[in-house]
Amino acid sequence: MTPSPLLRFAREGPVEAAPEPRPLAGCAMKVPPFGDLAAWLAELDRQSGLMRPRSRLYERFDRTARTLTPGRIRASRDARAVAELVRRLRAARDPVGHDLHGLDRVWSRAELGILITEAVNRDRQLAMGRVLPRLKGPRLDPRRLPGDRLEHLIQHHRDLEVVEALRAERRRCEAAGGGHAAR
């Protein structure tokens, strides 16, 4: 009888215990940081091309996709990348493709809705030529109102506290010289 070819792997000494498995969080694939939205889209394309039915690949794809935040969308200045992002996020809302693991599996519908809203808003801003997002401020800032609108609001606003604030602004402008009409 010929010996089994597997015997060459047999050890004559005592069998060593198997090493402890490393925790998944420590040995998981690292997500590379991306510089802009176009790089994020390219990284997702690269990872989608490598996608196989493996949980580690799914986890890496999810971590990479989750690096997209509404703040990063607002900071993007690349109109073509934002338009592509809008297309992909809308496609993820109603998945009909044959993706093994796509963007539709990363976010909840509520999170996806927030990202779609931010991406569409940013796309419209860039189409208007607004590179920097508008700074958030008070809803009604009397210092930013033109003189005719200030007068109109003083005459027609229902809230007397607002009217007093508008009058104070008118007095401040007149004291500064030039009056409200010189705005």
Structure commentary:
With 183 residues, the chain is mainly alpha-helical. It starts with 23 loop residues before the first helix and ends in a 7-residue tail after the last helix. It is elongated, with a radius of gyration of 30 Å. The chain folds into two domains: 32-128, no CATH class; 142-182, no CATH class. Helix 2 (37-49) runs antiparallel to helix 3 and helix 7 packs antiparallel against helix 8 (160-176). Residues 6-11 have low confidence and may be disordered. It has eight helices and no strands. The relative contact order is 0.08. Helix content is 52%, strand content 0%.
In summary, what is this structure?
The protein has 183 residues and is mainly α.
Shape: elongated
> How many discrete structural domains?
2
Q: What's the count of strands?
A: 0
- Count of separate DSSP helical elements: 8
Low-confidence stretches: 6-11
Helix content: 40-55%
Q: Which oligomeric state applies? A: single chain
Mean pLDDT comes to: 77
Straight-line N-to-C gap: 105 Å
Main pleated sheet: none
Output the helix-strand order.
HHHHHHHH
Q: DSSP strand (E) fraction?
A: under 5%
Query: Pairing-aware structural class of the strands and helices?
Result: mainly alpha
Radius of gyration: 30 Å
Characteristic terms for this protein:
183 residues, mainly alpha, 2 domains, 8 helices, 0% strand, elongated
Write the layout of secondary structure elements.
Layout: H1 24-27, H2 37-49, H3 55-65, H4 70-75, H5 79-93, H6 109-128, H7 147-156, H8 160-176
